[in-house]
Amino acid sequence: MPWLRLERVRVRFDGLEVLRGDTLELDGPSLALVLGPNGAGKTTLLKTIAGLIKPVEGRVEVLGEDVTGSPSRARKYVLYVPQLHPSLPPYPITPLEYVECLLKALGVRNWRAEARRALELVGLSRDTWERDFRKLSGGERQRALIAPMLVVERKVLLLDEPLTSVDPRWKEGIVRVIASKASSSLVVVTSHDPTMFLPYAKTVVLMNRGIAAQGPPEEVLRIDVLREVYGASAIPVEKHLHLADQHVWSQ
Question: What is the C-alpha to C-alpha distance for residues 30 and 161, in angstroms, rounded to an integer?
Fold first, then answer.
């Protein structure tokens, strides 16, 4: 039984199909990397898995349980970390308070101590823990959003662009910590910087208004497959593949 299964899932917004009867199976523990151009449906895929979007057709199963369109059922198995939103909370809250509140709501034991451990894991300095969330840099806010998933035990972890606005000096460390969760969980990551996660990815899911390809990186990241999705932006340079300015694969 796969840890995650989408069966003929169809999602439509204003008459436009974003997922087109797609089927996907992912097993764990492992890391799956979801790639595709803007508007390809990557965020929609994660929200559908998390039960936040109910498909017009199809079924979503996590560890054999139907979680289709039900965030309450999905929450037992799934933790979803959304992409950093440009809007800020209208009320003062600190990174420590944010992580503590979330861990407490998720039923984490020793949530106070675990909140501090989580913030240390993402490299947030202690002087930022008590600062107003609205006064943090984009990278600091993103690390605070990622922090809870590092100490929460869920079988499926969904991370939407977790490296957004993160300072380059912190990216490699955060990627390693996220990848370490793949030893016990199914970690599904979307990223515009695929090179960071590729060394850890067992599966690549390539999207373009639906799932265009899925499988091991060496099967999916071929120039013929990538050109169907990215067009002329997929450029072979000697034995390397580039998507626009991102070097994604060495053959």
Answer: 18
Run of H or E including 225 = helix 223-230
Of 133, 153, 173, the position where a domain reaches its end is 153
Both 113 and 73 in a single domain?
no
pTM for the model stands at: 0.84
Domains held by the chain: number = 2
Round to whole Å and give the CA distance between 8 and 6. Answer: 7
Asked if the model's pLDDT at residue 139 lies above 70, the reply is yes
Go through 180-199 and write b for each residue having 16 or more CB atoms within 10 A of its CB, e for each that does not: ebbeebbbbbbbebbebbbe
CB proximity list for 80: less than 8 A, separation 6 or greater: 46, 47, 49, 50, 52, 158, 160
User: Do residues 69 and 116 both lie within one domain?
Assistant: no
At 235, the amino acid letter reads I
Q: Phi and psi of 115, rounded to 5°?
A: -65, -40
226 part of a folded domain? no
Q: Taking the CB of residue 107, how many other CB atoms lie within 10 A of it?
A: 8
CA distance 203 to 183: 14
- Give which of 216, 220, 187, 188 is closest to 202, Cα–Cα: 216
Residue 245: pLDDT above 50?
Answer: no
* pLDDT tens readout for residues 86-116: 555 667 889 999 999 989 988 888 999 999 9
Tokens of 230: 């990215």
Range from 112-116, 152-156, 161-165, 230-234 carrying the lowest mean pLDDT = 230-234
Between 12 and 235, residue with greater pLDDT? 12
